[in-house]
Amino acid sequence: MPDLLLIGGMTDEMLGRLTPSFTVHRWADFDMDWLKRNGHRITHVATNGHDGVPKEVMAGLPNLELISCYGVGYDAIDVAEAVRRGIMVTHTPDVLNAEVATTAVLLALACYRELLRDDAWARSGDWETRGGAPLTRSMEGQTVGILGLGRIGQEIARKLQPWEPTILYHTRSPKESPYEHVPNLVEMARRSDLLIVITPGGPSTKHLVNAEVMEALGPQGTLVNVARGSVVDEAALIDALGSGKLGWAGLDVFEAEPHIPDALKAMKNVVLLPHVGSATVETRAAMGGLTVDNLLQHLENGTVKTPVPECQ
Ligand code: NDP
């Protein structure tokens, strides 16, 4: 049987489908010595968007044919190196669009309607001792700037429709879409009440959302990031939120996950999630299914279902 190296975790269901066809080795149980002795046997890797494939591990797998990533974002995998070596890389697009879009809307609503403050108000007894909670803001009819109008960005725009927003978007190239493309991100932020970030991570988007963008969004503005922590300058974000230059932030992703800066944790104008954009039982099962489908199909006939764009 071919040998598969598993980086990160895997559900029992995924393992149940893989073990009749692959000998599965868990990287968590091994070290570089094991890799030196056994690396040549590994033809397939299963990993995820967070762990990727560490550089030294990839270098120690001379006969690697396929990296199957559980997740749509693959910035933790050196795809340029994979392409150079003729290694196929797959990911799990589309099956998570709805869930991640729901997470973006959830974070936006939680900021606008102060969900955490009012939950605390209800639990603490403040309602009885202090009276009704202070008013919040309505999300109806807002101007929403979407940074990245790909598979998930479009689904976010669709899911926002009941709040009757004006939708703007910024991408490098305009898309066929009913929404207005704004070529300049600062300009889009200036015109937006709510900015939702949903680009890929990696060097090309690093700190796209910088101090200037946050100041343009302004004291009444809300920033939601469900993309990658690297897309937002976290130090500038803490500064903008702390000084009142930016109003609110709803964050699912952070620059040094799983670490979240204490300054963010202490702020009342933020809603924080531990990178759970796609983390429901149903969506994770669909992502796991596609991750395994790619591996099994590759074994069967050398093709895959969902290659990353660079490998198409
Ligand atoms: P797509 O590739 O379909 O869309 C990406 C969009 O980003 C495109 O519209 C693209 O347009 C735009 N974009 C890329 N680079 C830039 C740039 N430098 N400046 C402006 N726009 C840019 O990806 P998906 O919608 O499927 O996924 C997006 C990302 O969401 C993933 O890569 C992942 O990082 C993140 N994600 C997060 C999850 C979570 O749990 N929080 C779960 C799933 C995904 P153009 O090329 O024209 O610029």
Automatic annotation (TrEMBL):
- What is the originating organism of this protein? Aliishimia ponticola
Keyword list, A-Z: NAD, NADP, Oxidoreductase
Name under which the protein is recorded: 2-hydroxyacid dehydrogenase
| Classification via SUPFAM superfamilies | Formate/glycerate dehydrogenase catalytic domain-like, NAD(P)-binding Rossmann-fold domains
D-isomer specific 2-hydroxyacid dehydrogenase NAD-binding domain residues: 106-277
Name the PANTHER family on file.
Answer: 2-HYDROXYACID DEHYDROGENASE YGL185C-RELATED (PTHR10996:SF178), 2-HYDROXYACID DEHYDROGENASE-RELATED (PTHR10996)
The record's family statement is: Belongs to the D-isomer specific 2-hydroxyacid dehydrogenase family.
Keyword Ribonucleoprotein (UniProt): no
